[in-house]
Amino acid sequence: MPKEQATGEVSLSKTLLLPLSARPIEALVAILCILLAVYTIDTFRTGLFHLQHFRGPWWSRYTRLWICKTLASGNSAQIFVDINKKYGPVARIGPNNLITDDPEFTRRILAARSHYTRGPWFDSIKINPHISNIVSERHPGKHNHLRYQMSAGYAGKDIPDLESTIDERIVDFVRRIEQDWLSTVEGTKSFDIARRIQYLTVDIITHLSFGKPLGFVEADTDKFNFLATIETQLPIVQHFSVILELNTWLSRAANIKWLRKILVPSHTDKTGIGMIMGLSQQVIKTRFGQHAEKKKDMLGSFISRGLDATEVEMEISISLVAGSDTTATAMRSMLLSLISNPRVYSRLIEEIDGAVARGAISSPITEEEAKRLPYLQAVIKEGLRRFPPITQLRERMVPPEGDWYNGTFVPGGTFVGLNAWGLQLNSVFGDDPEVFRPERWLIEDKERLQKMGQVQELIFGYGTTRCLGIPIAMMNLNKIFVELFRRFDIQAVNPQKPWTSICYGIFFQKDFNVRITRRAPA
């Protein structure tokens, strides 16, 4: 049996995602979180009169501890859904915090010319406390300029081998299944496909970024304890987006040389984000200077459009963390939905087999061929709708002059969080929005399809905040299921508890043990 998890110890003093919290000793961080969370309990005057017209859990009006408790539960996505169901499309979850699942309000907040701005929540997404990245940049002008510099790389315009690179990695993944994990009538080789899917997405992102993969699939292990570090630290780190005072304190502490060595990832680290930064730096050094290599990969695209070495390093790091995890979550959740729904599973297999028989798809399938498979497209749309891979609040600040929502004034400076899961349960999807039913996307009513599509696309943001990585993610989704199901039958080993899925803004999914057999020819 292949190893199910990486060996080696994870340094609890080194976090991955956020530079300001990036590597404190876990126990110290926990203590500071508690102390500062208690400190942030707002006065009864503020609790009684600020945002008094918005309903929510009674104690959320006085303290941010309600948000901290929800984030720490590992079930925040569903809790936020329940909050908006109970208290309305705009609900109060903190002394100065609202959350909305209203699509129209969300679009107004995120619109290109909106006066809403990114709140302090985004400061917690920095890899380096002094350098913003495409995810954390709060200044609208600077953020738009970064998007301009990076959009061609993410869209594949500067990467002619984008599709063939993804093909190569998926073919390698399929080959690994055939070599090591196929079950037969004589016996079962069950394995955790959740972890292996993330190995695949890490290899895809690094291959597109550097011109070669890190080799997670080949090694069948979590190299450098990269994923383990995320999973160990994110449950702590997410609180830094709520306890803003602690985030500010750590930012200042990082300016002190000896504290910086403790708090900020280093290129000399042997595990986690620091190790990835070290590898990135080695490659980046070959791309600058008199004898710089010029390659048509994501790194080359960023450099050609004006990013300096430090900026490139930060952007590659954040794309690896954010891109690999969210794409893996989309793949895993859709796979579970498919193998848990025999009717949907059978219909997709029928469409794939029919396309193979007609010679309508290549091996591996091209993206254009995949787009001509209507049921596959419906499955992908429905899978993303039913299980959005990011549930972080991504709070925006109400402009200083305030705003109005359905006749109720929202004071300037209020933080408004976005309920990603709640948005996708809107009544526009019919009377069964909680059901995974791809057929809802195959109706003839074009007006309703348009309305559903306008809500579904909010998964990826809106306007100038729309995710740049959509083309890469969609290409992965268009290919992976066809390449798996044209060859294999996949079943969950334990249908009663098929996996463990925990939400900390992004999802940690494991114990998705499956049995894979080779399909008989159609």
From TrEMBL:
CDD domains in the record: CYP57A1-like
Keyword Metal-binding annotated: yes
Signal peptide: none
Record Gene3D superfamilies: Cytochrome P450
Keywords: Heme, Iron, Metal-binding, Monooxygenase, Oxidoreductase
Pfam families, per the entry: p450
Cofactor(s), names only, from the UniProt record: heme
Organism domain of life: Eukaryota
Gene Ontology molecular-function annotations: heme binding; iron ion binding; monooxygenase activity; oxidoreductase activity, acting on paired donors, with incorporation or reduction of molecular oxygen
Positions bound to heme: C467
Family: Belongs to the cytochrome P450 family.
Name of this chain's protein: Cytochrome P450 oxidoreductase
